[in-house]
Amino acid sequence: MAPLDPPTDGQLTLRAQAGETGALGLLLARHQAPMRAVALSLLGYGPDVEDAMQDAALTALRRIGDVRDPAAVGAWLRAIVRNSARMRLRATQETPGLDGLDRRYPCDDGPSHPERIVEQHAMRDWVWDAVEELPQHLRLVLMLRHFSGITSYQEIAAACEIPVGTVRSRLNQARAKLAQVLLSTAEEAHDDASALTEDSRQEALATLEGAARGSLPREIAELWPTETELVGPLGRPGERTHPFPAMRQNREAGVRQHLRHVVAGRGITIWEMDVTNPADAVRPCPPTLAWLMVRRSDRRVRTLRVVFPEPTP
Fold first, then answer.
1. Spatial distance between the Cα atoms of 66 and 3, rounded to a whole number of angstroms
2. What's the mean per-residue pLDDT of the chain?
3. pLDDT digits (tens, 9 = 90+) for 254-268
4. Do the beta carbons of residue 105 and residue 83 sit within 8 Å?
5. Does residue 105 contact residue 49 with C-beta atoms inside 8 Å?
6. DSSP 8-state symbol, 292
7. CATH number at residue 97
8. How far is CA 47 from the centre of its chain?
9. Are 143 and 198 part of one and the same domain?
10. How far apart (Å, rounded) are the C-alpha atoms in residues 139 and 73?
11. Which residues have a Cβ under 8 Å from the Cβ of 48 and sit 6 or more positions away?
C-alpha cells in the first residue's frame, strides 16, 4: 500500500480554523525552523529569540482564524515572529496584550477585534484550561502579559511586587509549562471560558454599581468575607485591611470606576477600569486602574490588589 501524502499547509490551516487543536501543533512544528531563522536574523543569539518564538506560538493559537490564504500560512507565521522581534527591539513599553494585537501582528482578514476572534474558536477553551493548570505565580504573570493591558515587564513587576528579572524568568517558565500542558490536553474536553468571563463581567458591574450606591447586593457581599485582605499600595503594612473602607472612601470622594476589560480564571480575576474624578478633585485618582483578585475555590475573594498601570500613549 502506498503511503499517504502528508497534509498540506492549506489543509492543516483549515482544520485548525475548524477547531482541530492538533493541526495547529503540526503547522508550528513544520515551520519552526524558518520562524526561528527570522527571529535570529533580527535578535541574534540569546533568550529574546525564545521569547519571540513563544509569543508567536501563542499569537498563532489566538489568531489562526485571521488567515485568509491557508496555503500561505508559513509567510503569516514568519510575519508574526518578525513583528514580535521588532517590538522587542523597538520599545520598552509594549502595546497591551489582546487589546493591542491588531496593531502588533498582521491580520489577513481586515480590521477585527482579537477577543471576538478568540470567542469564535474552540481553541480558546483549550488555552484557558491549560493556563489554569499553571501554578498561581506563573499564571498571574502570563495572564497579565498576554490577556490584559498590563503587559510591559516593568508594569508586571510593579503589579506583582517582584523584580523585572523575576518577571522574565516566570514568563519563560509559564510559557514552557503551558506548551507542555497544551500538548498533553489537546484531545480533552474543555470548559467554556466565555461563560466564566461573562459571569465575572456581570459580577464586576454589580460590584461597581453597589459600591457607588454604598450597598452591595447580598450575593456580591458574600464574595467579600471578613478575611478578604486589601494588599499592595492601598493596603496598610503590618495590618489586615478589608477592601470595603477603600470602596467607601472612593465613593465619598466622588470617584467613579467604569469597567473596560475582564480577564477571568478560576483562581485569578483581573478587572481593568477607566476612572473619572470630580471636577474639584484635589488629589485625583489615576485615569486607569486594575483589580487583581486571588480567589478561593468557592469564588470568594482572598486578596485584592489595586494597581495603577502607566497610561497607554
1. 32
2. 80
3. 999 999 999 998 899
4. yes
5. no
6. E
7. 1.10.10.10
8. 22
9. no
10. 30
11. 39, 85, 88
